[in-house]
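WARN no homologs supplied; continuing
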Amino acid sequence: MNKSDICIVNGCDRVRDKKQNRKICQMHRVRFGRHKSYDLPEKQKLPEGVVKICKIHGELTESEVYTSKSYVWPQCLACKKISNDKFKDKNPDRDTNILKSNFYANNGAFKLNKLEYAKLLDEQNNVCAICKKPEYIINGKINRIPKRLSIDHCHKSGKIRGLLCHRCNVSLGSFNDSIETLQSAIDYLKKHTS
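OK structure emitted
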């Protein structure tokens, strides 16, 4: 390799960027475009407990940021919510997608229209049909709202029976919808409760 093909920045042995007809390599070209220097700027030290500094909301702690596999760095929760709300306002018909207009149970085997789900939820006063309590599992970091109630269905007929919280749904599934086993559990609890 010819010496004229090497980047002119001291200590760099990369091939110069021939596409741009420059005497520096692509890395240093990009670095100079971003930072107006061939050297990387020193990373800003954050105060104790601060994960990110948002231009709008200032210093953010771990509970005020959103992280996921697709983001290399944490995102401000408040800014993310504002962005999501703007998107929903600009795209009101986005929810008419057939996949978004229904809720699915049992890996897509059963579907319940969102309007039917809302009607069923209203009939149950927004609580589980068994324990009469709202869902306790929090869904996601962005909105921090409880997970929606699970759609319970009969495994033999496929008929939708009602909406259950996660705990009741898993418990009912553990008993394999067996009335005898559930009655046996009730008898056991009555016998051993003082």
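The two ends are 88 Å apart (CA to CA).
OK
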